[in-house]
Design a protein that fits this description.
The complex is a heterodimer of chains A (411) and B (169).
Chain A: H1 7-19, E1 43-47, E2 50-53, E3 58-61, H2 76-88, H3 98-109, E4 115-119, H4 122-137, E5 141-145, E6 172-175, H5 180-189, E7 194-199, H6 217-228, E8 231-235, H7 248-252, E9 258-261, E10 272-276, H8 281-286, H9 297-312, H10 315-336, E11 341-344, E12 351-354, H11 361-372, E13 375-376, H12 391-410
Parallel strand pairs in A: 3-13, 5-6, 5-7, 7-8, 8-9
Antiparallel strand pairs in A: 1-2, 2-3, 4-10, 9-10, 11-12
Helix pairs in contact in A: 2-9, 3-9, 5-6, 10-12, 11-12
Chain B: H1 18-21, H2 23-35, H3 45-69, H4 71-79, E1 83-89, E2 94-100, E3 103-107, E4 116-120, H5 123-130, H6 136-142, E5 145-149, H7 152-168
Parallel strand pairs in B: 1-4
Antiparallel strand pairs in B: 1-2, 2-3, 4-5
Classes of the chains: A alpha/beta (411), B alpha+beta (169).
Bound molecules: pyridoxal-5'-phosphate (PLP).
Pyridoxal-5'-phosphate binds at residues 121-123, 126, 149-151, 200, 235, 237-238, 262 of chain A.
Chain lengths: 411, 169
Amino acid sequence: MKTYNYKKSRELFERAVEVIPNGIYVHYSPAPLIPIDAYPFYVESADGSRFIDVDGNEFIDYMCGYGPMVAGYHNKNIDKAAIEQLKKVDTATGAPAVMVDLAEELENTITIADWAFFAKNGNDVTTYSLMVAREHTQRKKIIRLKGGYHGVHPWTQSPDHPGVLFEDAENIIIGIFNDLDNLRDIIKKNKGEIAGLISTPYHHPVFFDSEMPDPGYWQEVEKICREEGIVIIVDEVRTGFRINVNGANETFGFKPDLICYSKAMANGYPISALVGTNEIKSSASKVFYTGSFWFSAMPMAASLATIRELKKTKGVEKMKEFGEKLAEGLSKLAENHGHELVVSGHPAMPYVRLADDPTMKLHQNWCAECTKRGAYFTSHHNWFVSTAHTEDDLKKTLEIAEDAFNALKKL
Amino acid sequence: MFDGKANPIPLKGFTKLGFMSKEFPKVTDKLEYYLKPTDDLLKDDKYLEINTIFTLTTAANALPTVMEFDPKANLTGHHLTKGRLLLKIKNGPGVLIDTDVNHIEVVDEDPSTATCEMLIKDIPIANKFLNGQVDIYGALAKGDLEIKGQTWLLDSVGLILDRIPIYIQ
Ligand SMILES: Cc1ncc(COP(=O)(O)O)c(C=O)c1O
């Protein structure tokens, strides 16, 4: 099978490092892609489940822009809604009418939602959720969980990281997912001081296997938080609209007070939302929070169309089915080649690793060999599937994976 | 580190030992020469090589102390996991560093036992890297630095390494 080269990507990068810190930063940075020469850096175009890089190489995209693409690049219905809105107005003096339609759609779709507040990035609303919880409870402290990602604002980072102060973490307590004793202990030691608990619905850290909630875990968390008056915040920035359009909490059987959305909610158009219950609405109203582009209408129209499209096409079920077939196919191939493939997390966001080599070098090499042949696999982040991934994509992916397993033997 | 004429190591009481009073200050003078580069000195390939190797060894051996006393590095220490990191100049010398929770130390073992590797392309790049003049993500993407294996170890050890220059300026 032919493997790709990335001459133009490299040339662009050489220019980029001169004028942009790190060339390409953080989550799109090529640095964590190992070995680096197997990966493209710059994208030229995208359609359906695939993207083409600046060197003309085509990839079946298993990162979906790290989550935003959920219903296919250039999804006709979504792009049409966005462009029609753009022709009318995007950002102007005043709120757009579509904002009300979108808030109503979210209120009708997400079980716990009585209201919705819009911003741009996931971190805009995770930070807002903390402010709302603090206002609501008149308490200071927040529990976030080890290995959980909620963005880049100082409170989300450990204070040993550059630019972060110990003071930034003063009222943040780090808990452990699936560990109720740990939660009880934290609450006991900080009685009456904890405003909120923020957590993803299941644990999806980088570098390590995803972890589903133990049976009864969320129900007990809910009970404890209700007793203690702690606001439950679910961060669905990554899982949102991939696990359950009504909220992943419905899949896991509990009711949070606030849920954060972004990424997939508009199929790649930039928007985020915090939704919540009526009990907490007046606190949300009191917090001073806004941004220049948070009333931009085009992503709102795109979001409305995305949510409707996902509901109409049973998108979540489709992604789950595709993800299951992908995991099964890849696992079987690995077994045939004498390897053990471990797949964890939700099928629409699988975390995949070859478990034979604890140093991860074998896994890194396999992901790289697949990518060089056109199936874009990262080695340490969960992958994403979309409703645009087809049986043809699956077949091609498995052919690529087979060839990559053969290539590993020659390394 | 070795600053000006002042002897950084308290030699009082040992001055009657011949080595300490004669050869040792010469050694420290030599070390100072190689560890305090000037732009002109760095133009000499041999000097550059020795300065780079000394800096690499000094930095690696400073890790436990920095982790113990620097508050930020100390916190990173709590997050360290078990592993063995190889920090190596391609076709050149390297150091092997063992890590675990609150533990970091240079070890003398077989480099092939490393669970994580950072390979530096050549001496000039290694020199820039060790002197904090390299845009790490950019260098990785350009292939000047190459990483593999349990790269989360590098995230942590990198944070501790980053704290060293604060104490030697
Ligand atoms: C779970 C989770 N929360 C929050 C964020 C932050 O979102 P953003 O990068 O849009 O600010 C992310 C981004 O990856 C995420 O995965």
